[in-house]
Amino acid sequence: MSLSAEYYTDKTGDRGGGGGAAALAHQRRLIQGLLVWATLLTLGLGVSITLHFIHRDSPASSKVTQVPADNQAESKDSSLMRFAPAWDRRENVTFLTWTTNNIGFIKGKQNLTVTKHGEYFLYLQLTLDHQQKAKHTITVRSQKQEILKGFINGSKSVFMANGIFLDNDDILTVTCEPGAKIMDSHAESYLGVIKLNST
Question: Is the pTM of this model over 0.70?
């Protein structure tokens, strides 16, 4: 049984004037325009952030400071610490453990202890093993507050970032509830902390 063109146009509201097709074409143009606009804004934001860090690290904008003898062990780029996974991707992980090569303002593996108070920018990406199906909640917290919280449901990875003030001896933990098999490649799962300033 086939529907006549008359029945179809009556049910869809298109009385033969082509209004439905025109409205659909207009809607598509609006969506494409919004996508282009969102892409341009995202690129602009990325360029702005990149220029901010380039300008901040340029010789003309930096002041010459004497490094105290007890801090000479810190790397030249002491404002950034990168942490790599220190877990086995074959096991379900709830409390994430990290390793780092640079000596800096955070120490520890599972409980990351802040050694210098100040303003920080934290970013985290976690990627689950492809076999994980459940919804997972990823949280970064200190003893005082929740800093980052994200959900993995359907997609296999989450990226989060936040700026925050941290005190000396604040302890940061990263958890995954319920426990999951998390990729242990540093390109798929990583944590980074940028020290913006100290007060």
Answer: no
DSSP for the chain?
----HHHHHHHHT--SSSHHHHHHHHHHHHHHHHHHHHHHHHHHHHHHHHHHHHHHHSGGGSPP-PPPGGGTTS-S-TTEEEEEE-S-TTS-EEE--EE-SS-SSEE-SSSEEE-S-EEEEEEEEEEB-TT--S-EEEEEE-SS-EEEEEEESSSSEEEEEEEEEE-TT-EEEEEEEEEE-B---TTTSEEEEEEEE--
Count of all residues that appear for the chain in the document: 199
Contacts of 37 (CB under 8 A, 6+ apart): none
Q: In what order do the strands lie in the sheet with 80-85?
A: 98-99, 80-85, 190-197, 118-127, 157-166
- Going residue by residue through the chain (199 aa), what tens digit of pLDDT does each one get? 455 445 444 444 545 555 788 889 889 988 988 888 888 888 777 777 766 666 554 444 333 333 333 343 444 446 888 898 999 888 899 999 999 877 789 999 989 999 988 999 999 999 998 777 789 999 999 988 999 999 988 778 899 999 999 998 899 999 999 998 999 988 999 999 999 986 5
